[in-house]
Automatic annotation (TrEMBL):
Belongs to the aldehyde dehydrogenase family. This is Succinate-semialdehyde dehydrogenase [NADP(+)] GabD. It comes from Granulosicoccus antarcticus IMCC3135. Its EC number is 1.2.1.79. One of its GO terms (biological process) is gamma-aminobutyric acid catabolic process. It comes from the Bacteria. Keywords: Oxidoreductase.
Length: 486
């Protein structure tokens, strides 16, 4: 099915880059073929632009910065608000675009549009609150002020698993702060990005403020990292590419926001409500077919309730439906064949090292990307799945005997994005919330994200925060003014 055939609003189907308020093809005519992971069919071709367009996007964003950064915050907020309203008005079409290019179930896609909108809503307000701060002076006859000013052009690089929300979480914050943006979406999901650009154009962002540049990532982003005019780089994606961009940005000392991979521990103590813990673990593992940076990668269960938990979890996993996103199953397909191979490799490795495969471990049907919800139990600590992000529907469960042991297992990783904890003991909640080396700790629940919170990780899960007040401050410099009044 072609994307253009499933939209009520055909203006959302854009197959070109959006630079300086104009839609453009690649100067060398290159295109990307985008396929539906649900059936392998081509849904359309997107312009795959190169160095010329990448540089042009920065030229445009730099030229637009002077006016946009000086616009009243209320004006920026009003335009963001119009963008928000247009996204909501086109929610069904945006959700369908996402299903066709990413594969997720339509209910999840609709949920993502709401989530994406919530960031624009939040920052349309927050734009007005970049207040000047007065500091009580430490010097005689001096007035001390801190001003918050936009850093300049911001490069935003986003992954395929949340094709809209990862863009709005960055772009709304940067635009509210007064930055102009150049956005590079993943090659797997460029149509969501250009649909957002079509709505941004309609909202009235001046030319050059909002640019979307699809194509080969190393070519496009490679220009941006070198360019001194790009003052901030906000990246969401794998830790591997994050490390590369960190190195590449060092020559021009950019502000960096890195939202990288995770290896979340999901810790279940015997004193918790096991049925709740099972329900929450199923959500934390299988949402978006496990293709979520917050996905529960290691499910660690206290030995006294281990067997009960495993039986209930396996039963639940086996009831989950798997199918085509528009039919709204519980799980959709994986993004590509590489993701399928990774599941197979991690399952094989765990089994070879002594884990038991309780269910799944293969595709629902050969030739598809529909990987069965899979549960491995008694997974040994040296298995790959206990150290490498799975990013798929394979759950790894292992027992533990005491708090000290589980804390040590949970922290024995380079990652530190989110940890889940299930226990009724207030003192244990307090102790572990302190000692878990994670940027976010979810206690007796799975859903914790939203526009007002500072999303982000520690260690090699990233730098800086997105969302909330800190999300906007990431795109601002503090200028210190000291005035003599004697
Ligand atoms: N922490 C978070 O908020 C968060 C959110 C979503 C996804 N993720 C992570 O993202 C990963 C999955 O997404 P992905 O497969 O799209 O990640 P990825 O790192 O392969 O790609 C992310 C983005 O980087 C671009 N990119 C790829 N290679 C590049 C290069 N050499 N130079 C410049 N840019 C390059 C891609 O085109 C894409 O736009 C997982 O590791 C997941 O945990 C993190
Ligand atoms: N699930 C995350 C995105 C990571 O993949 C979120 O809620 O923002």
């Amino acid at each position: 099915m072609k994307l253009s055939q499933v939209l009520d609003n055909p203006a959302l189907f854009r197959s070109q880059a959006y630079i300086n308020g104009l839609w453009c093809d690649s100067s060398d005519g290159k295109v990307l073929d985008v396929t539906d992971p649900g059936n392998g069919e081509s849904i359309g071709e997107m312009a795959s632009v190169g160095v010329i367009e990448s540089m042009a996007s920065v030229n445009a964003a730099q030229a637009a910065f002077a006016q946009w950064s000086r616009a009243l915050p209320q004006t920026r907020g009003d335009i963001l608000r119009r963008w928000h309203d247009l996204l909501l008005a086109n929610k069904e079409d945006l959700a369908r675009i996402m299903v066709l290019e990413q594969g997720k179930p339509i209910s999840e896609a609709r949920g993502e549009i709401d989530y994406a909108c919530s960031f624009i809503d939040f920052y349309a307000e927050e734009a007005k609150r970049a207040n000047i701060e007065s500091v009580t002076s430490h010097l005689p006859n001096a007035e001390v002020e801190l001003w918050r000013e936009p850093v300049g052009v911001a490069a935003l690089i986003t992954p395929w698993n949340f094709p809209c929300a990862m863009i709005t979480r960055k772009a709304a914050a940067a635009l509210a702060a007064g930055c102009t943006v150049v956005i590079h979406p993943s090659a797997e999901t460029p149509f969501s990005a250009t649909a957002l650009a079509a709505l941004a154009e309609q909202s009235g962002f001046p030319a050059g403020v909002f640019n979307v540049v699809p194509g080969e990532a190393p070519v496009i982003v490679g220009e941006w990292v070198k360019d001194c005019r790009v003052r901030a780089l906000s990246f969401t994606g794998s830790t591997e590419v994050g490390r590369l961009l960190y190195r590449q940005s060092s020559d021009t000392v950019k502000h960096l926001i890195l939202e990288l991979g995770g290896l979340a521990p999901f810790i279940v103590f015997a004193d918790c409500d096991i049925d709740v813990a099972v329900d929450e673990a199923v959500k934390a593992k299988f949402a978006t077919s496990g293709q979520d940076c917050l996905g529960a990668n290691r499910i660690l269960v206290e030995r006294a309730v281990y067997q009960e938990f495993c039986e209930k979890f396996v039963k639940r996993a086996e009831t989950l439906t798997l199918g085509y996103g528009l039919d709204d199953p519980d799980l959709g397909p994986l993004m590509n064949a590489r993701a399928v191979s990774k599941q197979d490799e991690q399952v094989q490795d765990a089994v070879t090292r002594g884990a038991q495969l309780a269910t799944g471990g293969k595709l629902k049907e050969e030739g598809t990307l529909l990987y069965l919800p899979t549960v491995l139990i008694d997974v040994p600590r040296d298995a790959r799945i206990m150290h490498e992000e799975t990013f798929g529907p394979v759950a790894a469960i292992a027992p533990f005997d005491n708090e000290q042991e589980v804390e040590e297992i949970a922290n024995a990783t380079e990652y530190g994005l989110v940890a889940y904890l299930h226990t009724q003991s207030p003192s244990r909640i307090y102790r572990l919330s302190r000692s878990l080396q994670y940027g976010m700790v979810a206690v007796n629940r799975t859903k914790i994200t939203g526009a007002p919170i500072p999303f982000g990780g520690m260690k090699q899960s990233g730098l800086g925060r997105e969302g909330g007040r800190s999300g906007m401050e990431s795109f601002m410099n503090i200028k210190y003014i000291c005035r003599d009044w004697s």
